[in-house]
Amino acid sequence: MRATLTQLATGLRLADDAHVDCDDCGDTLRDGASIVVRLTNERRHWSVDGIFCDDCDSTRTLDGPGTTYVAARVGVTSDGATQSRWACLVDPGPIAATRRRPDD
Fold first, then answer.
1. CA 92/CA 83 separation, integer angstroms
2. Does a structural domain hold residue 73?
3. Total-model pTM
4. Largest CB tally within 10 Å, which of 59, 64, 69, 84?
5. Separation of CA 102 from chain center
6. Is the dihedral of CA 62, 64, 68, 69 positive or negative?
7. Domain for residue 103, yes or no?
8. Spatial CB neighbours of 8, under 8 Å, sequence gap ≥ 6
């Protein structure tokens, strides 16, 4: 099966709460906030390695193979059965990337 990065990243959990904090300035980012997220891909497993507000996104660097930055918004997903809510990635679009290692 093949999927685009946008398909894979949509809905990706960002935090166990309904908001996230910018990794640079610490500002609280709530539902609808524009963000830049650093994702890494190791052996076909994507993980969130950084969340930044619009004011801090200019400090990004491509750290190594498999690093991708996406522009997105904070969304909130809920589970009525557990009465829980958490922040997730909404409307992600790649803005910068490095090549993966050949074995990834």
1. 26
2. yes
3. 0.82
4. 69
5. 23
6. negative
7. no
8. 46
Q: How far is CA 32 from the centre of its chain?
A: 14
Q: What is the DSSP string of 40-76?
A: EEETTEEEEEEEEETTTGGG----STTEEEEEEEEEE
CA distances, 99 to each of 42, 75, 78, 84 (Å): 11, 28, 34, 37
Query: Cβ(57)–Cβ(33) under 8 Å?
Result: no
Query: Does residue 104 belong to any structural domain of this protein?
Result: no
Structurally, the chain folds into a number of domains equal to: 1
pLDDT digits (tens, 9 = 90+) for 59-95: 666 667 778 889 999 999 999 999 999 999 999 988 8
Q: Kindly state whether residue 23 falls inside one of the protein's structural domains.
A: yes
Phi-psi region of 26 (alpha: psi -120 to 50; beta: other; left: phi over 0): left
Structural domain that includes position 38: 5-97
pLDDT per residue as tens digits for the range 35-63: 999 988 887 788 898 999 988 865 666 66
